[in-house]
């Protein structure tokens, strides 16, 4: 299973998008863009662009997380952040269970068939509902290989070595 969290810089992941100010005390609505919205409860700092902000308070309202930052005490000041993405360092990513990976870990893996022949690199992860589909292609080629993220097909994922081994059925 792959959990989505779009990549920002090489060392950060996106966890939310700033919406409109909330109320008159400098609070900001945030749309969570993480599979772990509870992560906001423990959040002490967050990047908005390249600015590291201190989180003063966190609460929830409907589908939004309401954040207050120490550096933005008023509604007018926090309004400047509307539309910005919120990031945390990758090292602060929520831990995953065995066999679960973040999308940013999967993209870029080299794909090998069972004979050890390179089939290209993962360039995208499609969310289909039933299971993810890894899109792989070789540099300079338009042909794409669609790899269902199923245990019967994906035999090995090794993030440290940057490789994935697949056993593709003949009909694919």
From TrEMBL:
Belongs to the RimM family. The lineage of its organism: Bacteria, Bacillati, Bacillota, Negativicutes, Selenomonadales. InterPro entries: PRC_barrel-like_sf, PRC_RimM, RimM, RimM_N, RimM_N_sf, Transl_B-barrel_sf. NCBIfam families: 16S_RimM (TIGR02273). Pfam families: PRC_RimM, RimM. The keyword Chaperone applies. Residues 104-172 form the Ribosome maturation factor RimM PRC barrel domain. The PRC barrel domain binds ribosomal protein uS19. Binds ribosomal protein uS19. This is Ribosome maturation factor RimM. It is found in: Cytoplasm. One of its GO terms (biological process) is rRNA processing. Residues 14-91 form the RimM N-terminal domain. One of its GO terms (molecular function) is ribosome binding. Keywords: Chaperone, Cytoplasm, Ribosome biogenesis, rRNA processing. An accessory protein needed during the final step in the assembly of 30S ribosomal subunit, possibly for assembly of the head region. Essential for efficient processing of 16S rRNA. May be needed both before and after RbfA during the maturation of 16S rRNA. It has affinity for free ribosomal 30S subunits but not for 70S ribosomes.
């Amino acid at each position: 299973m792959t959990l989505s969290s779009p990549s920002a810089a090489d060392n950060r992941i996106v966890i939310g998008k700033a919406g409109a100010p909330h109320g008159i005390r400098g609070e900001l609505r945030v749309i969570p863009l993480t599979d772990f919205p509870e992560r906001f409860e423990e959040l002490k700092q967050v990047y908005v662009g390249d600015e590291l902000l201190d989180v003063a308070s966190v609460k929830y309202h409907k589908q939004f997380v309401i954040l207050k930052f120490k550096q933005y005490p008023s509604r007018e000041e926090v309004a400047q952040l509307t539309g910005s993405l919120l990031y945390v360092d990758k090292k602060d990513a929520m831990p995953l269970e065995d066999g679960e990976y973040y999308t940013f870990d999967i993209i870029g893996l080299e794909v090998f068939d069972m004979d050890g022949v390179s089939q290209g690199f993962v360039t995208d992860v499609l969310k289909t509902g039933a299971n993810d589909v890894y899109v792989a292609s070789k540099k300079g080629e338009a042909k794409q290989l669609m790899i269902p993220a199923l245990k019967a097909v994906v035999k090995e994922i090794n993030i440290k070595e940057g490789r994935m081994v697949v056993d593709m059925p003949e009909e694919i």
